[in-house]
Amino acid sequence: MSRPTESIHGQWASRWTFILAATGSAVGLGNIWKFPYIAGENGGGAFVLVYLLCIAVIGLPLMMAEIMIGRRGRQNPVNTLRTLAKEENKSSSWAAAGWIAIVAGFIILSYYSVIAGQAMAYVFRSFANVFEGVTAEGAHHIYLSLTHDPERLLAWHTVFMVLTMVVVARGVKSGIEKFVKFVMPALFAILLLLVGYAANTGVYFSEGVHFLFTPDFSKLTTNSVLVAMGHAFFTLSLAMGAIMVYGAYLSKNTSIFKVSMWIAIADTTVALLAGLAIFPLVFANELTPSMGPGLIFETLPIAFGHMAGGALFGGLFFLLLVFAAWSSAISIIEPLISWLVENKKISRRRASVTAGFGIWLLGLLTVFSFNIGENWLLFGKTMFELLDYITANIMLPLGGLLTAIFAGWIMSKNNSTDELGIRVPLFNSLWRILIRYITPLGIIIVFLSVIGILG
Ligand code: TRP
């Protein structure tokens, strides 16, 4: 069977564009908003260690697998999996794994957009110098005044969704390179500035470092391990077809191993820097690390409110965060859009409007979870918490498991290693061992433990 050498949606201009776009996808709210608050909720050090381990032994091999599969199939995840399964004379029902990806993306973007909207609101608050001299209590009230107002949250959620769908409608490739090239380094610089500020808090900085990097395994529950693993998928944009469709636009002569390493390192560094900026502030202001999704919104303004030029730096920081979230949001929805365009034969524009409207509507559940729907609980979780839990902790690991099985067991050794193109035989074998045994077993063991079948 002859395989397409290029996707119908075109191709990245160069290896660099792919790296930028994939890093833009990986680095987002997951690193700066989510990682610190879940690390705080799950006791710090031991959780961080498990997370790093998951990135290395589950995330990295899986990222390589996804790029490899995407590049070989050159279509949306559903069609790619079907084509590659046929190539191996295996059941075309593997396409169903692509479906999990597409549905998960739809749900994730619905709440991602609401949080990105909160970051947008903070751009304006920062530039308007609202945080000047603010206390922890003041920052708390400022955050509540936003989240307790469904109209404001809804308005920002709407703005963010519109921005995302505008880029998606025009095609992922035009534009993305330009802004990621600028946003990533700038975000990095402001994070370093914030870590520098935190370092000046002396003993509190040590306390923050201790919290993040000294593992206390008595604080680690099986559920924390699941959350850490789920977050490894989330932060690397894995198991949802995002990296797979981006891989579909990648040229044949790029080293998949090198680009994956680069993306994983950049992504992890940003998350750790965010943690180092935030936890010293938590301890210096007698806040609790486990305060939840409001963590960055209630701590960082304290730093900005007390540093010279804080209004400017704060405004820039939240602006960059919005950009980072934007470049991630685009990738979350790309699998669905490419499916609509390829299989339903509708234009990118119509696909974007339709998908965008559905996601916006579902986003209302998250909007209300912070205010009038605070008490609409299911399994003891708000709607937002539930959507997050089901996607990040169940659908992503499940999608990852299927991807690993597909890459390691369904695809023949010849085809997968040919597409991966690793020249060192030892590395090739190492990847195959990881993807065939370690990655799937890791995921299964964590799942079984949480269900209570194991330990
Ligand atoms: N990785 C992004 C973040 O950390 C979010 C994201 C983008 C994502 N694409 C994804 C999460 C695909 C899961 C799957 O913010």
Describe this structure in words.
- The chain has helices at 15-26, 29-41, 45-73, 77-87, 95-127, 136-147, 150-170, 173-199, 203-213, 222-235, 242-248, 256-284, 295-306, 310-343, 348-369, 383-410, 413-420, 425-451.
- The mean pLDDT is 92.
- With 455 residues, the protein is an all-alpha fold.
- It has one domain (15-450): Hydantoin permease (Orthogonal Bundle), CATH 1.10.4160.
- The N and C termini lie far apart (47 Å).
- Bound molecules: tryptophan.
- Tryptophan (TRP) is lined by residues 25-26, 28-31, 108, 234-235, 237, 240, 242, 328, 331-332.
- The site of tryptophan has 15 residues, from helix 1, helix 2, helix 10 and helix 14.
- It is a multi-pass membrane protein.
- Its main location: membrane.
- The chain crosses the membrane at residues 12-33, 45-65, 94-115, 153-172, 184-205, 225-249, 261-283, 303-330, 351-370, 390-412, 433-454.
Give the number of DSSP strands: 0
Structural class: mainly alpha
CATH fold field value: Hydantoin permease
Indicate the radius of gyration in whole angstroms: 21 Å
CATH architecture: Orthogonal Bundle
Uncertain stretches: none
Query: Strand count, sense and closure of the main sheet?
Result: none
The set of bound ligands, ions and cofactors reads: tryptophan
Tally of individual domains: 1
CATH class: Mainly Alpha
| Shape label | globular
Order of SSEs? HHHHHHHHHHHHHHHHHH
Which percent bin holds the helix content?
over 70%
- Helical segment tally? 18
Proportion of beta-strand residues: under 5%
Distance between the termini: 47 Å
